[in-house]
Structures are given as C-alpha cells and as structure tokens.
Specification:
Belongs to the FGGY kinase family. The protein is an alpha+beta fold. It folds into 2 domains: about 240 residues, Nucleotidyltransferase, domain 5, CATH 3.30.420; about 200 residues, Nucleotidyltransferase, domain 5. The protein is built from 16 helices and 19 strands. The longest helix has 26 residues.
C-alpha cells in the first residue's frame, strides 16, 4: 500500500493506492488560508504539517496496515520560512499573495523580470518566491536573519517528517533554477538583489528528495519508523505525471482553484512575450511549459456565492443559457494579485459586459464558465499545445462545463480516471526515486473521452477572437 499526499491551498488530501495503482481510500482535511490584510494571503506551516500527519494517520487506521511509501506533493510558489528544524519563523506567504506587487512592478520597469524570463523561462508574479523574498528582505529582514530555509510547502512537511532539508527540481525551477544545468543561477539571484540570501535556498535533489520517517513522527502515525518518504514533484507536474501526460506536445488541464494549462516540451524557447513557467520534468532536456492562470474554479465560486447559488446547479444553469450567454461576456481575472498566465499583469481585474435588465443568473454562470474556457485556450496557445489534452480537477465534476472545454479547445479531452491525480503522480515519482519504478501503463484505467461538437466549436472560435480582443483592450487600461 502506498500513500500519496497533496497539501493544497485550502485542503490536504491523502490517497491510499494498492500495488496495482487502484485507489483504496481518500481522506481530506481543510486548512486555513489566512487573510490578515487586503491582498495578503498566509498559511500556518504547523497547521499544514499537522493536517498531513492527520490524514496519513487516518488512512493507516482505515486500511489497517502501514504504507510502503509516503509520497508528498503540494502547492508551489510562495515562501514558507522555517528554521533549521523546519519550524516556521513567520506564517507562510501564499502563491496567492499580492504584497510584493510593487516589487514586481519595479522589476518589470527595470527589465529584471524580462531578463530573468529569458534566462530561466519563468515569469515573476507577486506570489513568486523572488519578489516575496525581496519584500521580506526589505520589510522583515529580521525574519530572514533567523530563517534557515525559504522553503516550499511540501518540503516543510518533508523536513518535519524525515529531517531532510531539500527540494526537487520542479519546485526549484521557479524562479532561480538554470533550466539546463538544474543548479541555481547566481546571475538571477544577483539581478534580484538576493545574492546575500542565497543560503536560504534548499539543496536541489534529483529526481526528488528521499528520506526515512523519523521515530517521533512514526509514533504519531502509528507506523514503524524508517518508512521511505519522498517529496515531489509539486502539484502541477505531479498532476501531469499522474494523468499520463509525458509525450512532447501533449497537455494537461487542471480545472481547480488555479486554472493550470501545461504542455510537455523538449525544446526551450524563451523568446516572445514573457509568460508562464518552465518546470523541470523528468529527465534533463524535458520540461513542463505551465500556464497557471491565477483563478479557475475560484471565479465560478465567487459568482455562485454572489448570486446565492450552489455548485449543484451549474449544469442546470449551463442548460438554461445558450452558448454566448445571450450577449453577456466576462473577463475572469478575479485574483487581487492580477494575472500571471498567459501574460503578467498585477493590475488585471475581472469584469462583465453586455448586462441588461433581462440578464439572469444562468447567463452570469455561463458567461464566467465560457470565459474560463477561453482563458484555458489562451494559455494552451501560448504553451504550444499540439497533441491531446488530459483534464482533471474539481471543475470537471460538471459534465456540461467539461463539454464546454472540449468545444472551446476544439479537440477531444480525456478525463483522468483516478481520484487525486496529483497524489497519484507523487506516488509514481516516489516509487521511481526509491528504486521501485512501476509501469504506469499497467496501472492505467479506462478513460472517458469527451469529443467537441463541431457546430459549437465554430461558434466558440469566433467568440475566442472577441475574447482576445477584449483582453488586449483591457490590458491597456490595466497598465494605466
């Protein structure tokens, strides 16, 4: 039995898999996303570690046997400052945080952000570790002085579970890793004014950090000490791996809090407008080109809450409003930190257009669902999608919205069949890291494939051009 853990932004989930890759049980526990000030989003590292401990312990009790592996993945980006023992020196600053927006604007104006993208293939955004670290260095230097590691989420759990201080190449990719050598790029640190903080970056271990469960943690979990524990890749590439997206040109769409569109590439091109992330993925010379838009299902959540409705009615609303939402359109940039893919604009904001007294709730829901699908196509176009698309995430529970994605993308989408695809990807990576790789094709399950409707695809092709025009006009306004 293998346990995969995915420590997300608001939920920690753990899934138990048998020796054929079948899901035995999934347990989850909510964690708090703190909002101490407008635009600030933080998490308690101790609470996240406790949530991982709890879900693993519950799985062990439910299954009745200890795991042969605990494989960790989790949210990326942000900064999780910890001391030498992995204890927090301040609350973690989330990837959703906007406090470093002024630092980012300064770097954009000075050309620092552009030069870093040309070097690493990664854009900066307010919740990216580079501007967050610079903000901390300017505003809370005493915190960094007593910090041993500016860590990532899963790596905090790894250190507390095993004592290993390390990160994997995927998390380290953003923002300081040289994509070819997989070592930190000193010139990028220097450009960001962070050379004196280089010691805060954890060692990079390929393919991912490995360790043994400490006795005191094993006692809390009710299992023997020494069980192998691995950390990585983080949730985006872990989901791609779990969804079976490994061939260059193929894509993975994650319809979650973040709308993540990612494509496997084997050639790195950092020309053109800086956009998206370039994450180490598997062997050297292969990457994930990720376009994680700041808001996915969170935009729909906000609309439903505002109109006083629940997610169970989404299919009903999509049936009640025709394609095009009776002339109502939406730009889905609801994050207070703006947007990071397929363009970077800290001032990006959401809006509805075409509203009249005859607009109803169904039109509002359809318009935001169409807008998020358009955003996915925008991201995939920028990432270089050429092949098939595997889709996963909470948003695909709506069959009508899933069909809408296929229609807007104009290509079939296959639904990843396993629950907790990120945790599954972490298990696959973890087994390979400890020298027990499995043939993922033997663990594969039957998939559902949703074909696009050609009539609606033609309609949405025109709608997408209108969307792109609206975005470009809006960007001029955001910049001013």
């Amino acid at each position: 039995m293998y346990i995969g853990v995915d420590a997300g932004t608001s939920m920690t989930k753990a899934a138990a898999f048998d020796d054929h890759g079948r899901v035995l049980r999934v347990v989850a526990e909510r964690t708090q996303l703190l909002n101490p000030r407008d635009g600030w989003y933080e998490q308690d590292s101790d609470e996240v570690v406790a949530s991982v401990t709890d879900v693993v312990r519950r799985l062990v009790v439910d299954i009745g046997e200890p795991p042969a592996l605990i494989a960790l993945t989790g949210q990326g980006d942000g900064v999780w400052p910890v001391d030498g023992d992995g204890r927090p020196t301040r609350p973690a600053i989330s990837w959703m945080d906007a406090r470093a927006a002024d630092v980012l604007r300064e770097w954009i104006d000075a050309g620092v952000a552009d030069s870093a993208f040309r070097r690493t293939g990664n854009v900066f955004f307010p919740g990216c570790p580079a501007p967050v670290l610079a903000w901390l260095d300017r505003n809370e230097p005493e915190v960094l002085d007593r910090t041993a590691t500016a860590a990532y989420c899963k790596d905090v759990v790894m250190q507390r579970f095993t004592g290993v201080r390390a990160t994997d190449p995927s998390d380290a990719s953003l923002p300081f890793l040289d994509p070819h050598t997989r070592v930190y790029a000193d010139d990028v640190l220097e450009a960001c004014g962070l050379t004196h903080r280089a010691a805060l970056l954890a060692p990079v271990v390929e393919p991912c950090p490995r360790g043994a469960l400490l006795p005191e943690v094993a006692a809390q979990l009710g299992v023997p000490a020494g069980i192998p524990v691995t950390a990585g890749p983080f949730d985006l590439p872990a989901s791609a791996l779990g969804a079976g997206v490994t061939a260059p040109g193929d894509g993975n769409l994650i319809v979650g809090t973040t709308l993540a569109c990612q494509v496997v590439i084997d050639e790195l091109d950092t020309s053109g407008e800086p956009a998206g992330l370039t994450l180490a993925y598997g062997p050297r010379g292969r990457w994930i080109r990720a376009m994680p838009a700041m808001v996915g299902t969170a935009a729909l959540d906000w609309v439903l809450a505002t109109i006083g409705e629940k997610h169970v009615r989404v299919n009903e609303f999509l049936d009640a409003s025709p394609p095009g939402a009776r002339g109502v359109t939406c730009l889905p940039y609801f994050s207070p930190a703006g947007e990071r893919a397929p363009f970077v604009e800290p001032g990006a904001r959401a809006r509805y257009d075409g509203l009249t007294l005859q607009t109803d709730k169904a039109d509002l829901v359809r318009a935001v669902c169409e807008a998020i699908a358009y955003a996915a196509r925008h991201c995939f176009d920028a990432a270089g999608l050429r092949g098939g698309v595997a889709v996963c995430g909470g948003g695909i529970k709506s069959a009508r919205w899933l069909q809408l994605f296929a229609d807007v993308l104009g290509r079939p989408v296959r639904v990843a069949p396993k629950e907790e695809i990120g945790a599954y990807g972490a298990v696959l990576a973890g087994l390979a890291a400890i020298g027990s790789p499995v043939d993922a094709t033997e663990w594969a399950e039957d998939e559902v494939v949703v074909e696009p409707d050609q009539t609606r695809t033609s309609f949405y092709a025109e709608g997408f051009e209108h969307y792109r025009t609206a975005v470009e006009l809006a960007r001029k306004g955001w910049k001013s």
